[in-house]
Amino acid sequence: MKKNKTANVMASIYMLVFVALFLVLAGRFMYIQATGEVSGVALDEWAENQRTTSYKMNAERGQIMDKNGMVLAYDRPAYRMYAILDEGYSENSPEALHVSDTEETAEELASILDEDESEIKGILDEAVEAERFQVEFGQLGRQLSQQEKEAIEEAEIPGIYFDEEPMRYYPNGMFASHIIGFAREVEEETEDGIEHSITGVTGMENVMNEVLGGKDGFISYQRDRFNSKLLDPDEIIQEPEDGDQVYLTIDQKIQTLLEDLMTQVDEQYNPVKMNAIIMDPKTGEIMAMSTRPSFNPNSPENVENWYNDPISSPFEPGSTFKIFTWAAAIEEGVYNGEDTFESGTYQPNERIEEIRDHNQGEGWGTISYDEGFMRSSNVAASKLLWEDIGADEFYEYIQAFGFEETTGIDLPDESVGRIQYNWPSEKLRTAFGQGTTVTPIQQMRAASAIANDGQMVKPYVVDKIVDSTTNNVLEETEAEYTGQPISPETAEEMKELLASVVNDEDGTGAPYKLDDYVVGGKTGTAQMPDPEGGGYLTGKENHVFSFLGMAPMDDPQLMVYVSIQQPELEDTESGSAPLAFIFNNVVENSLHYLDVEPEEDESNKIQEVEFPEVAEQSAESVQSELEEQGVQPILIGEGETIVASNVEAGERILPNEKVLLLTDEPTMPDITGWSLREVMSFADLLNLQTERFGNGYVTSQGIEVGKPIQEGDYLGFELEVPSGESSDENDDDNAGEEETEEGNNNDEAGNEETEEE
């Protein structure tokens, strides 16, 4: 009886527990049925989400075009490969729709893609072991070309499928790559899995990323467990909005020409760096810009230099900065180009180390300031600043030309140079471009004032933004003036000075002269600071050689800056050789391409002189007539009648060219300083027997000055290369200066700059 009682109690307890559980579960079911929620989650929404899949529809990234509509960057289709591994995917199918043999699949894919078979098999086997429905192949299955996709499809490999994905492509390869930049695909993990999109990394791709990127769309539909769309999928489609098109001011033809020329120079001279800018000085449009080292944006691996050096890397400009020293002097009304000074050295006071001209302080004797500009005299620049303009006034011109601020060009990472302008020696050195640093684009903006009647223009590279759907212009850049540091009259006078640098025989820019157009410009060859020992590096090649020029000079349509750092030069070559190869070719061809009328005929009338008949003419009258035409006649002897000349009647010669006039009483002239060509022309005129010793310019002669000479005489002479110059082309070494102030020891001795003659 006791056992039965205990059993009844336990049965009652179990029954109560069972009833309680039943009521709880029933109540829960009734609650769920009534509310349709579990833990705050609506079951109908949860079921809807489980049945619904959603895919992002990538907007097509906008194209980058050149000024004329040539495509520089665009999206082209690529494919991402994946494999389905679940056997259920092949259910009710007469053929396999999934990967059934990982080894065979890996073998076939490896042969088509030229990849490691074991790597592919490893990816498949690992996914099979993890019982995954599908698997991607990482980088080796990404950005496959149309040809690769078709080859795999033709092989009919079960279980291999593709998703289309965009890939940014640059059809011109290493073309304005620091301007265009590049974009790359990025992965983002979302609730729906990994999403892929393209985003700009550098250059225009980065700056204009929002404009180019557009707005992605999406598609959603209901599916079964095998990801197949249901018969009534409740499909929703939100179309993507493609990115807008960005038109650059770059001209593909001019840029391509520039790139080809720089590649040739890069291969021949193996420089550390090169930069070039081609700009329309009337508008500020950058028509071409390139730098070396460069990179191919289609495969931007192992890039040596990410910086767009023309806008991001300030350096000591050298004598191109003299443009702004002379412009300041003219604008201040203190400049008279015919005034003379003693070249060679200059020392304002005993506390400042003397300034030396680039030929080791030898100078050219007493010369005019116009000639000082042509010869790129440091002494002339320093005297103008110290004695005429005034140091404080010149600093105001530095600011007016914008050298203490960025240009505002629409490219990323623009830098501004540093004006070293505290101590007297720093101020004097700034006058000829040493110590102070600027960027090439700063110099281009400042020099645009000379080409544009005194007004500076803001440089820019984005021409316009166009809606990719309607082709409507959304934004368009217009020329913007950023100041007027000089007057139109000063600009005109500076044009004449710049033209003389290239076209006068004493100018340092002779290598940049063109046949069809009058070029003006200024050379610069700045020494490089020694990062280890202080001061500056020594040696012929340890310079940044540069040239800033424009053409045609009556109405400049192009302004070009080129520079090259530490090229490997031959013994007979100067730094102007690689620069002139780039400048001359790109300017001549670009002006013809732009249909700028050649100036050849007008140039001849202005610059060339038709040599008259001089035989049996009065020596005095011939000399006077030629001098009026700008020719430099040299009378051989003291006779009253000209009997011969080294130039034939009717021959066209340049102003300032030396002409030898043989009189009827010939005597030996002073040929010291003459070039070998000039001496041989003189010897041919009198049929002299000659013997030379050395190379360069005449330092001594075997026949005394003033001694009578006649046909057949023997003339021996010695030649020497001036210090710091090669036998064929003269490298001007701007010797620097050092200063000691109270409380300051500035021993940047040996500062030097080299000009190309």
Automatic annotation (TrEMBL):
Record-annotated membrane-spanning stretches: 12-31
UniProt entry keywords in alphabetical sequence: Membrane, Transmembrane, Transmembrane helix
A GO CC term assigned to this protein in UniProt: plasma membrane
GO molecular function, one term: serine-type D-Ala-D-Ala carboxypeptidase activity
Pathway this chain belongs to: Cell wall biogenesis; peptidoglycan biosynthesis
Enzyme class: hydrolase
Family annotation (PROSITE patterns): PASTA
GO biological process, one term: cell wall organization
Pfam family, one: Transpeptidase
Catalytic activity, as annotated: Preferential cleavage: (Ac)2-L-Lys-D-Ala-|-D-Ala. Also transpeptidation of peptidyl-alanyl moieties that are N-acyl substituents of D-alanine
Family of this protein: Belongs to the transpeptidase family.
The protein's name in its UniProt record: serine-type D-Ala-D-Ala carboxypeptidase
Organism of derivation: Oceanobacillus oncorhynchi
Gene name as annotated: pbpB
